[in-house]
Amino acid sequence: MPQGSETQADGTEQAPGAEPGRTRRGLLIGAGIAGVAGLAAACGGSGDGDDAGGSDAGSGSSAGGGADGSGAALASAGEIPVGGGKVFEDAKVVVCQPRQGQFTAFSATCTHRGCSVGSVSGGTINCPCHGSKFKITDGSVVNPPADEPLKARKVTVQGDKIMLA
Ligand code: FES
Question: What is the CATH number assigned to the segment(s) 73-164?
Answer without folding.
Answer: 2.102.10.10
